[in-house]
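Self-study notes.
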Amino acid sequence: MSLFSTILSKLGIGEAHADTPAAAPTAGATETTTPAGSAAPAGAGSHISQVDVAAKLDGLAAQKGEQLNWKTSIVDLLKLLDLDSSLTARQELAKELNCPADKLGDSAQMNVWLHKAVLQKLADNGGNVPADLL
């Protein structure tokens, strides 16, 4: 399983939840999904419910004993999900998400790119991510 797949799994993105049918999305969730009139009928291979990524991560942060700023730090986001946040793991994730080669050589630039890329990919895979984080 790829590292990004593990992130999706930890957040419950892409999983069919029998106990949470179409009533699960929040009021703002429909604004960030497909535009009106697009050809994405419910149940046509799409996710059953959209995961509120910010609420889920904020909830996990509240349970942790340390202060983790997942909104700006890829290291903190990975720690929050109990995943390896080492440089090697982050480089592996960056390669998996097709990080530009020039950013891979500079850990600070890679971290900034990786944080944005992970949040964008979460949104692309059915996660409801606030627009100000994308």
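Second protein, same conventions, sequence then structure:
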Amino acid sequence: PNQLSDNMKKHGGFIPGVRPGPRTAQHIDGIMTRITLPGSIALAMVAIFPFFVTRQFNVAPSFAQFFGGTGLLIVVGVALDTLQQLESQLMTRHYEGFMKRGKIQGRRG
């Protein structure tokens, strides 16, 4: 957080409502703590999910491990990346359509 705060200060960046310097570092540290703690708890739950599935539902451990843990993280990551790419493509097409209908035309138009 301190290095990030210093870099922001050097390049003229700031966080609205937070004074540059040590207060910015404290603010960033607080945000990182609030994000990291729930994320690590969720990651731990995903990691031990296959163990509980094999215990509760009496399924083969290989089946539970295939659908849990790392496989689940990969599937969710790919799905989020695909949605982000789809959204950016839709935004690009939206802006292209907006630009084609403009009243101001260049030399070629």
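Instructor comment on the second fold: The radius of gyration is 24 Å.
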